[in-house]
Design a protein that fits this description.
single chain, 126 residues, mainly alpha, globular
């Protein structure tokens, strides 16, 4: 991750503050699905995931809740986000897909399904 990418994680601090705990867990659940989508967990994905956990003020104990949370219930939560929160979430998904420099079709399919279901009109651009 280059300097600009690291800096850009903090650009939406207000949106982070607007997310409640359950919304944060939902966001991280879907990002975890993207990490696992290609069948390989890259250290850059793990690093970004940990960075986001910290940025969202989620503790180590939250990881268990993230793993237990249903992806479908997470989508229901995300569907009810404000437009600003949805844009922020789309940017996080985009970063997670690209961080390992290997854009996998399964990751993009997850992105597209989430965007479609949640009504987020931001197409993925490689």
């Amino acid at each position: 991750m280059n300097k600009n990418e690291r800096k850009s994680l903090f650009l939406h601090k207000n949106n982070i503050d607007m997310l409640n705990y359950n919304q944060k867990i939902a966001v991280m659940r879907v990002l975890l699905d993207i990490i696992y989508a290609d069948g390989r967990v890259d250290s850059r994905e793990t690093s970004l995931f940990c960075k986001l956990m910290s940025e969202l003020d989620l503790s180590e104990e939250s990881k268990e809740q993230i793993q237990r949370k249903s992806s479908l219930v997470s989508l229901l939560d995300i569907k009810n986000f404000s437009e600003e929160q949805k844009v922020y979430f789309a940017e996080l998904m985009d970063k997670m897909i690209k961080v390992d420099e290997d854009i996998n079709v399964n990751e993009v399919v997850i992105y597209d399904v989430v965007m479609d279901y949640c009504g987020i009109p931001i197409p993925f651009t490689p």
